[in-house]
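Summary of Year 1 activities. Much of the first year was spent building the evaluation harness for sequence design. The harness presents a backbone, in tokenized form, and records the residue chosen at every position. We chose the following record to illustrate the format because it has been used consistently in internal testing since the harness was completed.
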């Protein structure tokens, strides 16, 4: 494997060799990772003016400032490396596989008399993990089967040989009801315990045949020795194992070890079902949604999903069944598109799951959209607004006894926070604690700016406060000549009363109404945003005041230090040379002497 870096205009000099290419933008951020059988041909296709690439790809190409490649031995190696790089870096133009769930595993611990129990955290040094399981129910079915077949302990005792020899433990209820053979009191040796555990591991790996053969052999042995009770117990366990296998069998037992992966897609998304089959039994089934970034083909999407899912579920499948043909064979990936028989039925089953998942997602999205539209439509009705309030802005002030006065504005689009549109304001024209004048200032500044930039106005303005703050905001709108162009209301915290300009009496919206909850959420968000900013400003001002109290440190010097270090703590951790680089050696010495004296203050 070999790595190199190239500029975009040097793509023609790339080797005709399998590998992975990485695109970086002007800020040297990784924006795309791709694989190729021939790096030269694949990368050149992005820069060929006659290639007819789509608009999204052209936009990505315009961002490319640097190309880095890694040579590998085969296209399959490139596929695996591409998957690892995408999973690690999440480049913005690569296919996004939407799957943020944490799946359960069964852990076989690394200790004396090992245990098997469920967990969602993978810490390799703790032992061997089996899974992940696509559902808790599937995992519990396997765990219940193992606990019925074998006597594996469930306690958390440290069963070190010397502790057992010292008689530190007593058998518990699990021993008395036959679920454990009492290794804690030395009633079972570790060799016998590990023998059972070895067969449990085969079941966890999906190899039920080995466990069945073991029980048959032991049953015949006990029957020949006339130990019929022991033989009967083994027969019951064998029946249990065969019943479990029959319940999970969905194809011919001759189908030993394969993966099935099918895809259905629309313009923006793709929906993939992945299944693992061992010895004719379905042991894993998983649906995932993929978000298209560059108008990728179904083949590209399916390969991406397949490699990631095989990696996630630790697949060792001999072959893969797909419903989409691959244009090129990939060494190391044995792909089949069956036309008849049991394998064709597996494709149909997987495809049915993918189609159902797509339908389910569309229904859920429609319900969410309906709910969102319903709430803002209800708000329009409750407030008698001329238009649907799909753009709402809310203002709040924050100060403590007039110190460090600030204000905030939050913006909600279609009932959701538009965080990029949030704004902080330092109060510039008001002296002392005057919430009314502060509100007038920030509302005036906000909409003067929107007018100058010729941007659209909100469909509803919300003022956090009662009639006084609302009147001040109205004055600002009148001075700008925009009063009446957009509805404006005030919401008083105490009784959740809604005030309109010029009305003496407030209106009350039903306390259980979704529209009132939306207004409360917007108001609370504006308050949170203002308070957070106020704390930050107050902390900075306190730091600056401390600094200017030091002999030789004036406001300009304090501003430099404040801008660089942000806090006394960070300043105290700085070296004299660092501080001297900002304010000079003489002032740095005085400053650090003061910091040293005031460390415990």
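For this record, the design step produced the sequence shown next.
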């Amino acid at each position: 494997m070999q790595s190199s870096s190239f500029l975009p205009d040097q793509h023609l000099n790339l080797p005709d060799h399998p590998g992975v290419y990485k695109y970086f933008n002007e800020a040297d951020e990784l924006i795309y990772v791709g694989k190729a059988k021939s790096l030269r041909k694949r990368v050149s296709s992005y820069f060929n003016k006659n290639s007819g690439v789509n608009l999204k790809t052209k936009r990505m190409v315009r961002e490319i400032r640097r190309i880095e490649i890694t040579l590998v031995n085969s296209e399959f190696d490139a596929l695996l490396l591409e998957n690892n790089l995408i999973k690690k870096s999440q480049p913005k133009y690569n296919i996004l596989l939407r799957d943020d769930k944490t799946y359960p595993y069964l852990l076989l611990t690394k200790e004396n008399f090992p245990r098997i129990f469920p967990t969602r955290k993978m810490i390799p040094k703790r032992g061997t993990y089996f899974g992940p399981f696509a559902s808790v129910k599937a995992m519990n079915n396997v765990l219940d089967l193992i606990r019925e077949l074998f006597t594996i302990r469930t306690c958390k005792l440290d069963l070190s040989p010397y502790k057992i020899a010292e008689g530190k433990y007593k058998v518990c209820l699990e021993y008395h009801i036959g679920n454990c053979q009492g290794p804690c009191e030395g009633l079972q040796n570790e060799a016998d315990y590990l023998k059972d555990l070895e067969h449990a591991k085969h079941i966890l790996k999906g190899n039920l045949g080995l466990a069945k053969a073991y029980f048959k052999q032991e049953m015949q042995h006990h029957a020949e020795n006339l130990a019929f009770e022991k033989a009967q117990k083994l027969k019951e366990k064998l029946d249990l194992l065969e019943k479990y296998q029959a319940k999970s069998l969905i194809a011919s037992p001759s189908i030993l070890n394969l993966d099935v992966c099918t895809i259905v897609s629309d313009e923006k998304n793709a929906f993939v079902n992945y299944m693992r089959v061992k010895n004719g039994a379905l042991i894993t089934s998983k649906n995932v949604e993929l978000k298209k970034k560059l108008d990728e083909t179904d083949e590209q999407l399916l390969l991406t999903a397949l490699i990631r899912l095989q990696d996630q579920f630790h697949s060792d499948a001999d072959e893969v069944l797909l419903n989409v043909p691959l244009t090129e064979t990939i060494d190391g990936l044995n792909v089949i598109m069956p036309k008849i028989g049991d394998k064709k039925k597996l494709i149909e089953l997987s495809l049915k799951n993918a189609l159902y998942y797509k339908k389910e997602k569309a229904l859920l999205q429609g319900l969410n959209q309906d709910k969102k539209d319903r709430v803002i439509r209800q708000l329009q009705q409750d407030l008698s607004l001329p238009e649907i309030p799909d753009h709402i802005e809310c203002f709040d002030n924050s100060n403590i006894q007039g110190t460090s006065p600030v204000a905030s504005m939050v913006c909600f689009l279609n009932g959701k926070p538009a965080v990029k549109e949030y704004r902080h304001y330092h109060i510039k024209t008001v002296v002392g604690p005057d919430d009314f004048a502060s509100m007038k200032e920030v509302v005036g500044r906000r909409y003067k700016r929107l007018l100058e930039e010729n941007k659209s106005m909100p469909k509803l303005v919300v003022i956090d406060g009662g009639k006084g703050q609302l009147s001040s905001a109205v004055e600002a709108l009148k001075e700008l000549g925009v009063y009446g162009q957009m509805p404006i209301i005030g919401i008083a915290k105490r009784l959740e009363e809604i005030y309109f300009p010029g009305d003496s009496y407030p209106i009350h919206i039903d306390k259980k109404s979704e529209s009132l909850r939306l207004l409360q959420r917007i108001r609370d968000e504006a308050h949170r945003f203002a308070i957070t900013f106020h704390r930050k400003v107050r902390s900075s001002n306190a730091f600056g005041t401390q600094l200017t109290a030091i002999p030789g440190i004036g406001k300009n010097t304090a501003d430099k230090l404040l801008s660089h270090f942000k806090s006394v703590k960070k300043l105290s951790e700085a070296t004299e040379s660092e501080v001297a680089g900002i304010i000079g050696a003489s002032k740095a010495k005085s400053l650090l002497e003061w910091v040293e004296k005031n460390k415990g203050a």
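The chain has a mean pLDDT of 80. Quantitative recovery figures across the full test set are reported in Table 2.
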